[in-house]
Design brief:
By secondary structure, the protein is α+β, with helices and mostly antiparallel strands. 21% of the residues lie in helices and 13% in strands. The protein contains five helices and seven strands; from the N terminus they run αβααααββββββ. A seven-stranded antiparallel sheet has the order 1-7-6-2-3-4-5, with helices on one face. A hairpin with a 5-residue loop joins strand 2 and strand 3.
Length: 270
Amino acid sequence: MRRLFLLAAAAGAAFWLAGCQSTGSIGHTGSTRPGGAAKTAASHMPTGQQVSPPYGYVAFCLRNRAECEGGTDAPREARLTPARWAELNDINDDVNRKVRQIEDSENYGAVEYWAYPNSRGGDCEDFALLKRRTLIERGWPAESLLLTVVRERNGDGHAVLTIATDKGDYILDNKIRTILAWNEAPYKWVKRQSTRRPYIWVTLDPSRFEVAAWESVPPLGSPLPYAAAKPAGGNRALKTANPLRPSLADENGAPASPHGGKKTAPPPSA
């Protein structure tokens, strides 16, 4: 719990790198249904130790606590049958088609504001949040649907939804129409939600994996830890001169490992 408090405090106090261009496309714009069934992804995405959540996610949780609390001690992968694969593609296509892409600066008058799309539309993390909620409503296990922060090749930050399945990890993106295996997407992986607690985030950068990776988590039913680190100015949209979004925690800014930060082999996935 002490480590979670430190992570939350860092989230409330630090400035964040950011970037989420809601316009434009990276490619893979053909059919999202190759052969009618998902091919097996090469692997599951390796994860490391707990790190500070994105600032925008912390503010979202303070406004929507019920959506960030809870979790499980026995996370399940989604079973990706042909019918489920078709449903996954339908939802991804539907959200990408119906939601207008709009920057937070235009939508909310703020650089950074994680929310579900409104009548004006949404940006990358808003797309990911809506896809996650829709899939949960359709019966997909919440612990398999993980908000994920990445960097594009030009260095900009971006947010996607990772789905952990029995065929590997896949990416739902508002920039790439085709659902891709995680290792096929053209990104540098930064961090994502833990499968055990939605309010915990873990690093995806293998060069930063530490011995502290398999850390304890609060018992189920524990209150959201962020309230103690509520940033000055409350939980409203982040207003800053930084033109890049969404919030990407400083990759060097995670609290020090209680084991001294010694690098070791990758730990069990969180």
